[in-house]
Design goal:
Layout: H1 8-12, H2 24-58, H3 61-65, H4 73-96, H5 108-122, H6 124-134, H7 139-167
Helix pairs in contact: 2-4, 2-7, 4-7, 5-7, 6-7
Length: 168
């Protein structure tokens, strides 16, 4: 190559790549911790479902007439698995969104609560509101389930923000 001419490879390749080899374990730990925090938040939603929601739903006679059955151990296990997996997916979404990077000077509690409420508004609120509007007999169950989903979503948000804050 002639003197004074820079090759395209040198121009296109940065001298310090964005993820140097020393940064990769940090990124993996951050990802794993955020996904596990989301999973734990989902399990908090399952705990709320088993303790609070099931007791509230058991008191509603119109739900028994509509076919509501009390929780069994198998159903509680499925609920925990579903909440945990959905929480892990929400944790991955939090990580992919760089921990709500727009809130740079906001405490992690506010970031987590904001993320949890946004999750709830985007996912659970429309489905449960439409169900309550279309099936009037299930309005009380819709309210209980909406509160349950809100508790799970805010738990996921808070734990993900805490995990992100600890690593950062």
């Amino acid at each position: 190559m002639a003197r004074g001419i820079t090759s395209y490879v040198t121009i296109l390749r940065p001298r310090n790549p964005p993820f140097a080899t020393s940064d990769q374990p940090h990124v993996r730990i951050e990802l794993i911790m955020t996904v596990l925090a989301g999973f734990a938040g989902g399990l908090a939603g399952a705990l709320w479902a088993g303790i609070v929601s099931s007791a509230l739903l058991a008191r509603r006679p119109e739900l028994s007439a509509a076919g509501w059955r009390p929780d069994t151990a198998w159903r509680v296990l499925h609920t925990a698995a579903l909440y945990g997996l959905c929480g892990a997916a929400a944790g991955l979404l939090f990580w992919l969104g760089w921990g709500l990077v727009a809130f740079t000077s906001t405490p992690w509690l506010a970031v987590g609560a904001t993320y949890g409420v946004l999750l709830w508004v985007a996912t659970a609120l429309p489905a449960l509101t439409l169900l309550a509007l279309r099936v009037p007999a299930l309005r009380a169950a819709g309210v209980v389930m909406a509160i349950e989903a809100l508790v799970a979503a805010v738990s996921v948000g808070l734990l993900c923000a805490f995990a992100w804050h600890r690593v950062a």
